[in-house]
Each structure stands twice: as C-alpha cells, then as structure tokens.
Specification:
This protein has helices spanning 14-31, 47-64, 111-125, 178-183, 185-188, 213-226, 241-253, 273-280, 356-359, 375-389, 394-409, 424-429, 431-453, 492-497, 524-536; strands at residues 92-95, 105-108, 130-133, 146-149, 153-154, 160-161, 167-168, 235-239, 262-266, 286-291, 304-309, 329-332, 351-355, 368-372, 456-457, 464-466, 471-473, 479-484, 501-502, 504-505, 515-519. The chain is globular. The chain is built from 15 helices and 21 strands. It has 538 residues and is α/β, with parallel strands linked by helices. Helices cover 33% and strands 15% of the residues. Helix 6 packs parallel to helix 11, helix 7 (241-253) packs across helix 10 and helix 13 packs parallel to helix 15. Strands 8-14-13-12-11-9-10 form a 7-stranded mixed beta sheet. A 4-stranded antiparallel beta sheet has the order 15-18-21-20, covered by helices on one side.
C-alpha cells in the first residue's frame, strides 16, 4: 500500500482513523494476518481469538485516545501510520501458524519486552562477563556493536580472564544485583517518550516541588511493605543520591549568623566520605568536627550535628547517636533493608536518608530521598537542591519509580509467597529474598576463606528477629570490615595491594590501618576472584 504524497503532521480524527483502519485491515488480510473484525474467519472460532481480539481493539481505542501529560491530544505524524509504524500495528499483532489453525496466539510487541530480551541476549553474547554495546540502540537485533567487558576479562566476547589484573573492591558498586534485574527486565524497564517530563516542575503544591508524585507514592509504599521507616505525616525530599541530601541537610540544620561553623561529627569508624564532603566547599557555616566518641559539648552555644549510619558503613553494626547533647542527628539508613540486616522496627527519626543505590542496586540513577519530620527543614533542604541543581532528573525519578514498584508489586499478594520461604520463585522474583540469599551465600564463603587463612578476622554478628522475613536472620553487610592479624601495626591496605587487591584503608574511617573495607556487592566474577586471592595470601 503506497504512502500518500502529503505527510504533514495533523491531528487524527475518528473518521480519519476509521478510514485508515479499513485500509490496514485489507492490507493485513493480503499479508495473511487475522483482520481486526468482530467476526472470526469461518472454521477458526476459538476463545483465544476472542481474547486477542479484545486486546487488539483496546489497543486501537487507546491509540485513538492518546493524550499528553497535560491532557492535550497528541499530534501524531501521518508517517507513523504508514510504513508499518502505526502505534496499533507496532504494539498489537495477531499471528497464526497456518490458515485456519485453531491454536492461534496473540503476540504483544511491547518495547519493554524487546529491550529485556535484547539485554538478556547481549549478556549471553558476551560470555556473561560483559555487556553488548549496540551502535544502533533503536534496533533490537544484536548487530554492528561490540562487547564491553567487566573488570579482569578481555577478548572480543569477554571470555578470557586476565589472571594478573588488579582487583578493585575499594568502592561499593552494587552490580551484584544485575542478575536479578536481567531476569526481571520486562517488569522493570522504563520507556520515556521524547515529549514527556520536559518541565522543571513536578508538583508545585508540594514542599519538594521537583519530586515526581508517582515516586513519592512508591517510596511510601515500599517503606510500608518493609516496615523500616515511618513515613506518615513526614515530608519527602528527593535528591541526586544521598550525598546531595546529606549536604542539603547540613545546610538546613546549621543555624545562620554564627561566629564559628557548626561541628559535624560521627562516631568511628564512620563513613569515609563524611569528612571529605563536609569540608570540600570550605563552608563558613559548618566544618568537620571529628569523632563523636570524643566530642564534648561545652555549652548550648557549642552547636553540632551528629551523623549516624545504621547499619554502619564500614563495619555493619547497628548504630545510635552517642553524644548526649542538644544537637540534631542525621540518620543515614542506606543499608537498613532486609537483604542486609534484620528489620527489627520502623525507624522514626527527625531526618532519615535512603537511596536506590544500595536498596535496589541502581547506583547509576543517582536517586536518594530524605524523610523529614520538620516542615522548615524540608523547605531549606529543597531550597539547597534548587540552588545546587535546580531540581532532580525526572528521567531518573521515573526509572526509580518503576524499579521500586517492581519490588513492591512482587510482594503485593500475601497468598502467593512465603516470607520465610527460600523457593526458586522467591529467590528469582522477590528482590529482598534474592538479595538476602545472595548476601548470605557470600558471607558464608568469605568466612570460610578467612577462617582457613587465619591471617584475617571479620566482625561477628548476632542473629535478630526480622519482622519482614518473620524469622531470625544474621546481618549481611554490603562491606566486609577486614582486620589483618599479623604485625601490631600492619598496613592491611598495603598488604592486600601487593596481592592485587585494592581496598580502602581504615585510616579513611578514623580507624587503625590494620583494618580495610572490602566491597562484597560487586559482580560474581569479581567476588570469586577476591576469594581466590585472599586464600593464596600467606
């Protein structure tokens, strides 16, 4: 069917669509497709036809009634309705193996499905040690691209291990969860149209005006499901990762007009980025004040802000504020999720920070959120982010929304899963079950190697009752706080580096150099190489 000469953009009318539908039906009949008709062909009556027919007609109706986010009719180029690129034809297609065959199926050509299949295929193409980079991303077929290999692997298909490569477990890159999201790719994939979310503004009636309402809803839903934080009556502020929120919180909590900066403190071993981030801009309103264990508030004029990471990074233990004073406390709860630690009660603090980086593994999306009790603090945090980045990426927010929804919806029906179970269904399709199983396996393997080597020790954790799983579980931190038990002043970082392992020294956490932090949330290949190298150190 030849395309019309005139292809200018125009609003589609019902009459126009009806005429186009008639022509497309004739075209599809010639091509052997079952037509969009209320009456199936003689001899092919089947309930599957009726189901597929219903889906096809619904798709046609949705295509006719397309509106944008402001409820204005979408102007669709006529060219999309020719050249086989119709919104209807590109999403719903009815196929049959042979003419008149009863076992006809309905194929839904969902872009998210195509992307998920292509991603899984690319993973296999690169031997499981890399991912395929397609030079034509819009084309699902794997052609014209190349494999980008993970650390310590090379060759055209990433099948060759570089035996003498340097293994970097210094950073906490949560790529361990890639396998889960590959298996659940179709459910979690986000497709964003070119005209969507172009404005700076999301919800001007909200304190945090750049927070997407759908994301706020999913955040509250997930915390309600897990039971790890109180959100009722609280304000949610979204940020570009929890690091930006941490800076916004310091700005909001530091009183202006003081002659001396506010002291920012945290108990050792503290998160290594706290001192660096606090002092990076050399602010006049706050400064790094050191170890909270040794801090003494001499008077109410001696103002401070205490940082509490719980479970703690780097050692994995549950923490509380240690200074018995009047200063505000920021609770960094990035790891208070059931795959890392037992959920014993909902945390109810004035200011709590969370992030998708560690909760679901999507560090690259750079989305974090703060749950804030005080309205004025929430306003000041929002103002800081407004001045710093004029809001937060809507694309990242939409992706985070879909990710959190995928996690929550897998637990939606209490009758379809066992919270205490560890069946293959729970492991593959329930994110927290999958993560808990994987982290338990990794910690067991790491302890076995350390116990046999006897040159190192690891923290020992006591089991506690986890409300989410309904049973006792043992903490499984994202990092291993490893101690070298050789010389009294052993430089553990230097020792491991000489064996091809890059770590982060205890000095960065306010602790002795006999300690190092190891990330154990990298890909399986990296973790297995880590075990191999630790086992050979004597």
């Amino acid at each position: 069917m030849a395309p019309p000469k005139h292809r200018s953009r125009q609003k589609l009318t019902i009459n126009h669509l009806a005429e186009q539908g008639k022509q497309q039906q004739q075209h599809r009949e010639k091509k052997g497709y079952f037509p969009f008709s209320l009456i199936p062909r003689p001899g092919s009556m089947n309930s599957k036809y009726l189901i597929c027919l219903s889906m096809a007609m619904n798709a046609c109706l949705l295509a006719i009634l397309l509106y944008d986010e402001n409820y204005h009719p979408i102007v669709i180029p006529r060219s999309l309705w020719w050249k086989g690129k119709s919104l209807v034809n590109n999403n719903i297609r009815m196929t049959g193996q042979e003419k008149g065959e009863a076992n006809t199926t309905c194929a839904v050509n969902d872009p998210r499905h195509n992307i998920a299949v292509a991603t899984a295929g690319s993973h296999a193409t690169c031997s499981g040690h890399g991912y395929y980079v397609n030079n034509s991303p819009s084309v699902p077929a794997l052609s014209g691209g190349f494999c980008k290999c993970h650390a310590c692997f090379t060759d055209h298909n990433c099948s060759t291990l570089v035996s003498d490569c340097v293994l970097n477990v210094d950073h906490g890159d949560p790529t361990m969860f890639e396998s889960f999201w590959i298996k659940n790719g179709q459910k979690s994939t986000t497709v964003i149209m070119g005209w969507q979310r172009m404005s700076y503004f999301s919800d001007v009636g909200n304190v945090c005006w750049f927070l997407e309402p759908e994301l706020a809803k999913e955040i509250r839903s997930l915390h309600s499901l897990v039971g790890n934080a109180v959100t009722k009556g609280r304000h949610i502020v979204v940020g570009t990762g929890s690091t930006q929120l941490f800076q916004a919180a310091l700005y909001a909590l530091s009183p202006p007009g003081r002659s001396t900066p506010t002291n920012v403190i945290s108990a050792t071993p503290y998160y290594s980025s706290y001192p660096v981030v606090t002092d990076y801009l050399k602010s006049e309103i706050y400064r790094w004040g050191g170890d909270a264990w040794t801090y003494r508030q001499t008077s109410d004029e001696d103002y401070y802000i205490e940082l509490v990471t719980s479970p703690n990074n780097p050692d994995g233990f549950t923490r509380e504020a240690v200074v018995n004073g009047s200063g505000p406390v920021i609770y960094d709860l990035a790891y208070y999720w059931p795959h890392y630690t037992p959920i014993t009660a909902p945390t109810d603090q004035d200011l709590m920070l969370f992030t998708v980086s560690k909760s679901t593994g999507h560090a690259g999306s750079r989305i974090g959120w703060a749950i804030v009790k005080d309205l004025e603090v929430a306003k000041k945090m929002t103002k800081y982010i407004e001045l710093n980045t004029i809001g937060v990426s809507k694309d990242s927010q939409l992706r985070a929304t879909q990710i959190l929804h995928t996690v929550s919806s897998s637990y939606a029906d209490e009758n379809t899963f066992d919270r205490q179970g560890d069946s293959s269904i729970e492991k593959e399709h329930r994110f927290f079950h999958h993560g808990s199983t994987l982290m338990s396996e990794r910690w067991n393997s790491l302890r076995d190697v350390v116990n046999l080597n006897r040159l190192f020790t690891l923290p020992v954790f006591e089991p506690r009752f986890c409300n989410f799983f309904g049973r006792y579980t043992t903490p499984r931190p994202a990092f291993a706080w490893l101690k070298c038990e050789g010389k009294e002043d052993e430089d553990c970082e230097k020792l491991l580096k000489s064996n091809g392992i890059i770590t982060r020294s205890g000095r960065h956490f306010g602790a002795p150099q006999t300690y190092v932090r190891l990330s154990i949330i990298d890909r399986n290949q990296t973790f297995n190489l880590l075990l191999d190298r630790l086992s050979t150190i004597h």
